[in-house]
Amino acid sequence: xxxxxxxxxxxxxxxxxxxxxxxxxxxxxxxxxxxxxxxxxxxxxxxxxxxxxxxxxxxxxxxxxxxxxxxxxxxxxxxxxxxxxxxxxxxxxxxxxxxxxxxxxxxxxxxxxxxxxxxxxxxxxxxxxxxxxxxxxxxxxxxxxxxxxxxxxxxxxxxxxxxxxxxxxxxxxxxxxxxxxxxxxxxxxxxxxxxxxxxxxxxxxxxxxxxxxxxxxxxxxxxxxxxxxxxxxxxxxxxxxxxxxxxxxxxxxxxxxxxxxxxxxxxxxxxxxxxxxxxxxxxxxxxxxxxxxx
Length: 294
Description:
Layout: E1 15-19, H1 24-40, E2 43-49, H2 66-81, E3 90-95, H3 99-109, E4 114-118, H4 125-140, E5 145-148, E6 160-165, H5 175-185, E7 188-195, H6 200-220, E8 224-230, H7 234-244, E9 249-253, H8 264-272, E10 277-280, H9 282-287
Parallel strand pairs: 1-2, 1-4, 2-3, 4-5, 6-7, 6-9, 7-8, 9-10
Antiparallel strand pairs: 5-10
Helix pairs in contact: 3-4, 7-8
């Protein structure tokens, strides 16, 4: 079944994990997460893993002082951002090991509803996260992940969410969580039928998926708009459309390769989008607390 019937039941997020390495990009992601937590009354747990290499952060000091300095920096963050935080609790956790694995493990252990992390940042940070770590966090997390470009101007509201609909069987699986998330902000969803080929059979397939999406959103009372995009470069056309309407978020399914890593199309949009990306893979969507796969 591609999309379950029924009305979305709003389930407020309770826990958000934020990956922090004290760089500009990760602090930007923290501020983005705080805005979501304030809206959903969620707790935030910041996670730092001491196997890191960012010239902007704390790693020029000796190895034995890593954790002491990290605690100090976290306490400073709590003091700085607590006045802006009206959600639940703002906490932190220090971990040691493989970066992506520790972030994913903490999210699963805390039964997190969402992971927020930086994407592009200052020199060093971009290479650090938009390499195997961001790839593997998105691919292995048991919940959706939002990646935030440090150049994205933070907003208190999310008014427009772009939802690309392609010809793949799992394309609609992102819709229940995305629609539920949009209800926090009373956002409008922008469904984009992406025609990457001239084959009429593929066009009909996408149109069929869009028809299912329309019916679902009508029943869920979620406002939406439908646009058709004709382009062989799905990443470029999706980002350009999102920019043209001043979108606040793009929601995607993350196809994966045989090794369980992020596929090329998902990689490109996560790496290159100046707009935050909400990523989820099939398992995330099916077991999401917000979905109707029950």
